[in-house]
Amino acid sequence: MPHKIISKKQLSEDVFTAEVEAPLIAQARKPGQFVIISLNNEYSERIPLTIAGADVDKGTITLIWQRVGKTTAEMADLKQGDEIANVAGPLGRPTHIEKFGSVVCVGGGIGNAPLLPITRALKKAGNKITSILGARTRELMILEEEFAQTSDELIITTDDGSHGRKALVTEPLEELCRRDEKPARAFVIGPAIMMKFCCAVTKRFDVPTQVSLNTIMVDGTGMCGGCRIEFDNKPKFVCVDGPEFDGHKVNFDLMMKRLDAYKELEQERHEKYKEHRCKIGLDQ
Amino acid sequence: MSEDKNNELLQHLLEKQKAAPLKPAERFEIPGRDMPEQNPDVRRTNVSEVALGYTETQARIEAMRCLQCKKAPCMKGCPVKIRIADFVAAITEGEYDQALAIIKENSLLPSVCGRVCPQEVQCQETCTVGLKFKDPTKAVSIGRLERFVADLGRNSDALPAVAPDTGMKVAIIGSGPGGIVAAADTRRAGHDVTVFEAFHKPGGVMVYGIPEFRLPKAIVQEEIDTLTKMGVKIVCNFVVGRTRTIEQLMKEDGFDAVYIGVGAGLPRFMGIEGESLVGVFSANEYLTRANLMRAYDYGKGADTPIVSSKKVAVVGGGNVAIDSARTAVRLGAEKVYLVYRRTEKEMPARVEEVHHAKQEGIEFHILQSPKRIIGDENSRVTAIECLKYELGEPDDSGRRRPLPIEGSEFTLDVDTVIIAIGNGANPLLAQTTPGLEFNKWGNIVVDENCKTS
Ligand SMILES: Cc1cc2nc3c(=O)[nH]c(=O)nc-3n(C[C@H](O)[C@H](O)[C@H](O)COP(=O)(O)OP(=O)(O)OC[C@H]3O[C@@H](n4cnc5c(N)ncnc54)[C@H](O)[C@@H]3O)c2cc1C
Ligand SMILES: Cc1cc2nc3c(=O)[nH]c(=O)nc-3n(C[C@H](O)[C@H](O)[C@H](O)COP(=O)(O)OP(=O)(O)OC[C@H]3O[C@@H](n4cnc5c(N)ncnc54)[C@H](O)[C@@H]3O)c2cc1C
Ligand code: SF4
Ligand code: SF4
Ligand code: FES
User: Fold this and answer.
1) φ, ψ for residue B336, nearest 5 deg
2) What is the pLDDT of residue A280?
3) In this predicted structure, what is the pLDDT of residue A265?
4) Which residue's CA is minimally distant from atom 6 of ligand 4?
5) Is residue B313 within 8 Å of residue B417, measured between CB atoms?
6) Within 6 Å (CB) of ligand 1, which residues are found?
7) Distance, CA of B343 to CA of B346 (rounded, Å)
8) Residues of chain B with pLDDT under 70
9) What is the pLDDT of residues B384-404, one digit of tens each?
10) Residue A277: is its pLDDT beyond 80?
11) CA–CA gap between residue A279 and residue A82 (Å, rounded)
12) According to the model, what pLDDT value does residue B442 have?
């Protein structure tokens, strides 16, 4: 059963969002879960994307993705009314939501997308929310308004100072941890390197930290082990044991190396797709 | 033997048979027909099927080797109890449609079973002819004959008969061979059947695991089409336990019964140093990338990448290990080692596949097992350190237990390691189905009627 794109928008140069028909998933999904999509049956790659939101009445889920390679670029070229052949989910364990007190939610780049539904659920559960959102530069900041609505305090950082504070997210995070009333818990989603350094900070201050990991996946149901990480020196499968983990026990260095396993092949493929787009006139 | 010679032999046997039925001694004298195969040097470079299938003449000669034993011991070895003597007799007569009809009384998947059943430990293990020669590979080649008639009948539209509607709704979880057989049986009984599959394509292990060169995907698709034509609904991208729970299926969606055929789940790793390095794969991942995602066509259309390996070590001795090793060869690896801690005799893989693997240049390292995997500063695999083993006293399974020889460490330089030592149970249904009993290994508990809680 193909899944129709009900609406689509560009959020920044490389970030897009779409509402996609998937009534059963809209009903079943909980914050923290993701879907695996593939664009056609024969040759397309299966890629994981977080469910950023859902509308049960309309029977749609919201996906937000960043154009980083061929599949996400192909998705960016889809239009309203086009169809995605396969959407499977919701996958992964839902985030454990409860009233912790005051929590800090840290998002980096596209990580803001998966962080949003979690932040909303934490707010709904009665937590006091401080959100820290970071991006390289102003144009890459997404979902700022949505976070403003669900946060009690919002801190924006950019690497180049074009928007908010000129800093990495770890700076305000450390300041928060130094406050008299330090956060009861931190939720951090972003590039692996950012999660690694955020965890180094919160560990020093003994603030329990949840991270959501974006390893390479194939099936998403626990069958292949391609998504495995080292957690507390033991293997764990991100798709069924996660995607959320206690960030203090994750071996981020190894995870980053595993993420790059196919880098050259993937880049080649993306370049070919870009050439192909030029030829068929998608690039004006 | 050339086709002319085969023809001559067949005519000769038919003449003889006209005079008087062949005696057992005469049948024993007919040499078994070898399976025509792609040349090993050629097939190393393609993914087309290795075993090409009998010609009609070969099939009829092979069928004449059958003694038509009264007690049909072969049937006892077959898990689905096909009337083997009868379908083989029909082949001798040239009545191929009839032969296929007999097989289809018991089996929906003859073109699959004929190819991948481990016949040498099932129907052919108990065959009288094989026993006479003390070698199941010299038995009547029941599987090959089954494949022959199944392939001939591939274009026919004949469908299994479906009983009138019972009004009962059955959900089948998983579309592997287990699920397909259950779906066909329940549909034949007249129930309204829906198969739920987590992947985007139905077929289970037949599409993600067993490679094209052993089981062409077009054949699997035809079997699935038969199901659909019988009125079975197949829903892909549906992860039971996540998209809907079993409880929802039964309480809200009106299913009266659920059959769980989800196959094996989490791949086992060895728990040795270096297993998370880049370049270490479970066989499931390696084979899924290669088969289901068609990574062998990467750059020619397919979007899923796979490592381009030069030297590969595969750990294990079952069909999955052999399939991984042979896939690595086809993906261009120059050296492929198969590391197994017992001896070749104990390998669970099919004899035929072990033979094929050797023909294709795979190097067998028996009585050896990895101790750790070694990587470089980028965490990429560079070598595997192994220990040598010797056989000790028999263990619970009656097989002699392999014992490590102290100080026998040595290393093999490799860039890829594929672990094929089996699977544990998938935790997904256990996590999401309260009340279903699982044992301590995570397998589902059934009572003597095979009903679950
Ligand atoms: C549970 C989970 C949830 C995710 N949610 C989202 C989401 O909501 N929005 C979103 O944009 N992305 C998300 N991702 C990441 C997304 O799956 C990848 O960006 C996507 O697979 C890239 O596919 P591609 O073919 O476009 O690029 P590829 O060509 O496959 O990759 C291009 C480059 O991106 C990097 N890359 C590859 N795979 C990943 C990955 N899984 N994560 C991060 N970088 C990767 C590699 O360095 C690679 O060189 C999620 C990943 C996981 C595991
Ligand atoms: C590489 C390989 C080679 C093999 N070679 C041989 C051979 O030569 N001879 C032989 O006899 N046997 C062989 N086997 C073993 C044989 O294939 C299996 O025993 C058999 O396929 C099991 O069938 P199944 O239907 O139980 O499971 P599977 O074929 O594994 O099918 C299970 C299906 O269920 C789906 N599923 C799982 N969880 C869910 C869920 N929650 N919701 C929906 N769907 C779900 C899976 O995606 C899968 O498609 C081989 C196995 C492998 C892996
Ligand atoms: S090949 Fe398999 S199905 Fe066919 S007779 Fe032998 S055991 Fe039975
Ligand atoms: S046991 Fe062998 S010889 Fe006897 S009927 Fe079966 S197939 Fe024929
Ligand atoms: S993606 Fe295959 S096990 Fe997680």
Assistant:
1) -130, 120
2) 65
3) 76
4) B74
5) yes
6) A 34, 45, 47-50, 64-66, 68-72, 110, 113-114, 214-217, 243, 259-260, 263, 266, 270
7) 6
8) 1, 427, 430-453
9) 999 999 988 888 877 788 899
10) no
11) 21
12) 38
Beta pairing class for B400-404 and B368-375: unpaired
Question: Which pLDDT score is estimated for A283?
Answer: 56
In angstroms, the Cα distances linking B383 to B181, B411, B414 are 43, 6, 5
Give strand pairing partners of B446: B452
The torsion of the CA quartet B37, B40, B44, B50, rounded to 10 degrees, works out to 10
Peptide bond into A2 cis (omega under 30): no
Rounded Cα distance, A226 and A235, in Å: 11
Share of chain A above pLDDT 70, in %: 98
Per-residue model confidence as pLDDT tens digits over A161-186: 899 999 999 999 999 999 888 999 99
DSSP B230: T
pLDDT of amino acid B294: 81
Name the amino acid, one letter, at A200: A
| pTM metric for this prediction | 0.90
Q: What angle do CA A79, A85, A88 make, to 5 degrees?
A: 115
β-sheet bridge partners, residue B329 = none
**Whats the size of chain A, residue-wise?**
284
Two tokens at A172? Answer: 């305000």
The interface residues of chain A toward chain B in range 194-253, judged by CB-CB distance below 8 A, are 218-219, 221-226, 228-230, 235, 237, 240, 251, 253
Give the single-character DSSP code of A109.
G
User: Which residues have a Cβ under 8 Å from the Cβ of B328 and sit 6 or more positions away?
Assistant: B286, B309, B312, B314, B336, B416, B418
CA distance linking residue B62 with residue B52, whole number of Å: 16
Q: Is A171 helix (H, G, I), strand (E, B) or coil?
A: helix
pLDDT digits (tens, 9 = 90+) for A105-127: 999 989 999 999 999 999 999 99
Q: Is B407 exposed, middle or buried (0-12, 13-18, 19+ CB in 10 A)?
A: exposed
Beta-carbon contacts of B240 under 8 Å, excluding residues fewer than 6 positions away, are B171, B173, B196, B198, B246, B249, B262, B429
* Predicted pLDDT at B396: 82
CA distance B24 to chain A (A): 50
Strand-pairing partners, residue B267, are B423
Q: Rounded CA gap, B428 and B433, in Å?
A: 9
**Rounded distance, CA B125 to CA B73, Å?**
9
Q: Which atom of ligand 1 is nearest to the CA of A242?
A: 1
Which atom in ligand 3 lies closest to the alpha carbon of residue B114?
Answer: 1
CA of A135 to the centre of ligand 2 (A): 44
Q: Is B405 helix (H, G, I), strand (E, B) or coil?
A: coil
**Chain segment A54-108, per-residue pLDDT in tens:** 999 999 999 999 998 889 999 999 999 999 999 998 999 999 999 999 999 999 9
Sheet containing strand B169-173, edge to edge, reads B233-235, B192-196, B169-173, B257-260
Contact A71, A61 (CB under 8 A): no
Single out the residue of A226, A177, A229 nearest to residue A199, CA to CA. Answer: A177
H/E element, B247: helix B246-251
Sequence-ordered list of residues with C-beta below 8 angstroms from that of B271, at least 6 positions apart, any chain: none
Contact between B404 and B385 (Cβ < 8 Å):
no
Cα–Cα distances in Å, from B360 out to A56, B38, B297, B357?
A: 55, 11, 21, 5
Q: Output the 3-class SS for A191-242.
A: CHHHHHHHHHHHHHCCCCEEEECCCCCCCCCCCCCCCEEEECCEEEEHHHHC
